[in-house]
Design goal:
- The protein is an alpha+beta fold and 711 residues long.
- The protein folds into four domains: 208 residues, Nucleotide cyclase, GGDEF domain (Alpha-Beta Plaits), CATH 3.30.70.1230; 37 residues, no CATH class; 141 residues, Rossmann fold (3-Layer(aba) Sandwich); 141 residues, Serine Threonine Protein Phosphatase 5, Tetratricopeptide repeat.
- The protein contains 30 helices and 16 strands.
- Strands 1, 2, 3, 4, 5, 6, 7 and 8 form an eight-stranded mixed beta sheet that branches. Strands 11, 12, 13, 14, 15 and 16 form a six-stranded mixed beta sheet that branches.
- Helix 14 packs antiparallel against helix 15.
Length: 711
């Protein structure tokens, strides 16, 4: 009681991030309906991953409010909006629950309620409830304070829509922002904010939220920084160019090539629509004066009815290229439109009716017209680069496009089909460098995901990469592929770094080169802070790529920054809940935080989503062993042993389970086998937390030395 009295006299304030919610029309429901609605709501909230994570870490307080609740998060200002998105998505299966939510960050303090129990109160909670009260069913409203915190982040900015001021209880007014995406939220203006005089913007959050002295100072420094290092220049290419009053204005030399529509609606011709789009992205990206949105980002708009102006705002580009592809036997029709993203006006449009054999010529003609219509002044070398890497053999080029189509599926069958297509491409054109580069990447992927034994694929990958470099030394892609092979199979560290740096020098905007240099070389060699910075460059270049987002989390994991890794992987899963690799890395980070139940759940999802990948199964077995579930761990070992009789199972991954079980002798036997087979992940011995228990053993130190690393 003395402590309670002290708290009442001298309350200790701290900043909390509050998510308030209630059910619209709750009081009109029958008693049994009210009970059912609250039961379902509580279940949905408790099942939200963000809720469970914060609760497990002791960073969450829950306050029931009769027809809803308030969730009070500490330390992470993004937690309430992430949790709100998860709850809103889950609510789609319970449309009868008309939920509204409000978010605010502000001061709170511990109090003692009438029952002498610890509770919490303060302006942070009060304003969150006032914000929520302004909404209708489906709304996720934010206070302006919260929106200002989120607006600088590309992940959130496109979904923030300023509403202006809304009057709440006692004549007070709060400034509101409506949050919605294509999947969650309510885009309609709340009834309480219906006054037109309050309206400011129905597009991305206006520049009002950006008009702070600190941000103007940062903008000035950014302009100065444009003349500095190439690293800073690469960052500048993904940041918006802001006007003073009109919101965002894109760099005039910037474009997004959206995935072309397959007008046939025939899966067998899907490769053409995707392939032409990707080929145009790659060709235009050769022009350093033009900022081209990467494939992974542009293809997020696939099969969506998109407005070019909205795309322009979201991606900060001046122009958007769309198209349709129709194949009729050996005839090909391609329709393209180049649109001014600021006005929605057509800059240029054309139709190409040619033979399928003219595919390369059509792609080249479109690329040249786009460059001309954007008024780019190309040197003779740049004009040559627009068409340089295309095959002169139309049939070879079609096989290449099919190969990239299957490669992008990132599945065992998809990669194997890609290999077949790339092989047919180079058979028809033995001088097609990109065909060899695609073949190298496919063999690498088979090995990385443990779909095949390294000795079966990596020599073929190296041969293909070397051939690609020999055919076109100025192509960045095969240099990066070669660097990957030199690290993970040859353990030739100095040659690997030279290859990665050459790739980046040739094409600074090639995100994969930055990614592989970070996750494979810099991480393995213990240059962890460099790895994080390099991976950030890759993510800036492809901010919505599932691969880049996942391996940003992986890099943070190896750097020992587990909380950041968890946040990053969770963001990736929000983008695509079915991406197994993100669940795998999230589980790894949870495991290091000793949140074993959450780790096991993520690994189970990864196993299911990957179709039973041995890589994911081994991670699950390790988590079972670490959490003292030895029977379950041994069961996984049995399954992997049986699986190894049918397909490749990495000895390295199985060794991790034995380390966790404390069977070091068996672990070292498997690590020796992994060394003999050049297991792909063996280079991470020094940085993987899984091997800390045996890191002082002389046998481990000898193994590290033989891989070419040092303690």
């Amino acid at each position: 009681m003395a402590e309670a009295a002290e708290a009442a006299v001298n309350p200790k304030l701290e900043i909390a991030h509050v998510l308030a919610m209630d059910v619209v029309g709750y009081s009109t429901l029958l008693i049994n309906e009210q009970s059912r609605v609250l039961t379902d709501l509580n279940r949905i909230v408790r099942e939200a991953a963000r809720f469970r994570e914060a609760d497990a870490q002791g960073k969450l307080l829950r306050l029931p409010t009769g027809d809803g609740m308030a969730l009070v998060f500490f330390n992470d200002p993004e937690a309430p909006i992430e949790c709100a998105m998860e709850i809103a998505a889950a609510m789609k299966s319970s449309p009868e629950i008309r939920l509204r939510m409000g978010i605010h960050s502000g001061p709170v303090n511990q109090v003692v309620d009438v029952n002498d129990r610890s509770n919490i109160a303060g302006a942070g909670i009060d304003i969150a409830q006032r914000v929520m009260d302004c909404g209708d069913a489906g709304h996720i409203l934010l206070s302006k304070r919260v929106a200002e915190d989120l607006a600088p982040l590309p992940r959130w900015n496109p979904h923030l829509h300023e509403l202006g001021e809304c009057e709440v209880k006692h004549g007070r007014k709060v400034s509101l922002v409506n949050f919605y995406t294509t999947e969650v939220g309510n885009p309609a203006r709340p009834n309480k904010c219906a006054s037109a005089t309050n309206a400011r913007s129905t597009s991305a959050l206006s520049s009002v939220l950006w008009q702070k002295p600190a941000l103007f100072a940062a903008a000035a420094l950014f302009v100065i920084a444009l003349g500095l290092a190439a690293v800073i220049f690469s960052r500048s290419k993904v940041l918006p160019f802001w006007t003073n009053a009109g919101g965002a204005r894109a760099n005039s030399q910037s474009i997004a090539v959206l995935p072309f529509e397959n007008a046939n609606n025939d899966p067998n011709t899907e490769y053409l629509a995707e392939g032409i789009s990707e080929a145009l992205i790659n060709s235009l990206a050769e022009l350093r004066q033009l900022r081209v949105i990467a494939r992974a980002t542009a293809f997020r708009y696939k099969r969506k009815d998109v407005d070019p102006q909205r795309v322009g705002r979201e991606l900060q580009v001046a122009a958007v290229l769309t198209g349709k592809v129709r194949q009729m036997q050996d005839a090909l029709n391609v329709q393209v439109d180049l649109v001014d993203a600021a006005t929605g006006a057509q800059i240029w449009g054309a139709g190409y009716d040619r033979k399928l054999a003219d595919l390369v010529a059509i792609k080249q003609a479109i690329a040249q017209e786009v460059a001309a219509k954007l008024k780019l002044k190309l040197s003779s070398e740049e004009q040559r680069r627009l068409v340089k890497r295309d095959s002169s053999n139309a049939e070879a080029y079609q096989f290449y496009l099919r190969g990239r189509y299957f490669w992008n599926k990132r599945t065992p069958d998809g990669i194997k089909q890609a290999i077949d297509q790339f092989q047919q491409a180079i058979q028809r054109d033995p001088n097609f460098a990109l065909g060899y580069a695609g073949l190298a990447d496919s063999y690498i992927a088979l090995t990385f995901y443990n779909f095949a034994a390294p000795h079966e694929t990596m020599p073929k990958a190296k041969e293909s990469a070397l051939k690609a470099v020999a055919l076109d030394e100025t192509a960045a892609e095969p240099h990066a592929s070669l660097g990957n092979i030199l690290v993970n199979y040859d353990w030739n560290w100095s040659a690997a770094e030279k290859a990665f740096k050459r790739s980046i020098q040739l094409k600074p905007d090639y995100a994969t080169a930055h990614e592989w240099y970070a996750i494979h070389y810099l991480t393995a060699t213990g240059r962890l802070e460099e790895a994080v910075q390099e991976m950030k460059k890759a993510l800036e270049l492809e901010p919505v790529s599932l691969i880049m987002n996942t391996f940003m989390g992986a890099t943070l994991y190896y750097a020992g920054r587990y909380d950041e890794a968890i946040d990053q992987c969770r963001r990736t899963i929000e983008m695509d809940p079915n991406f197994a690799v993100a669940h795998w890395h999230l589980g790894l980070a949870y495991e290091q935080k000793q949140v074993f139940d959450a780790a096991i759940e993520e690994f189970q999802k990864a196993v299911s989503l990957s179709g039973g990948s041995p890589l994911m199964k081994a991670a699950l077995g390790h988590a079972y062993a670490k959490s003292q579930k030895k029977d379950e761990a041994n069961k996984i070992l049995g399954e992997l042993n049986e699986l190894s009789k049918q397909e490749y199972v990495s000895s390295y991954e199985v060794a991790t389970i034995y380390v966790a079980l404390g069977d070091n002798e068996q672990a070292f036997q498997l690590l020796e086998k992994a060394h003999a087979e050049h297991s792909f992940h063996l280079v991470r011995l020094n940085v993987s937390p899984h091997f800390k228990p045996i890191s002082s053993d002389p046998r481990f130190q000898d193994l590290v030395h033989r891989v070419g690393l040092s303690r």
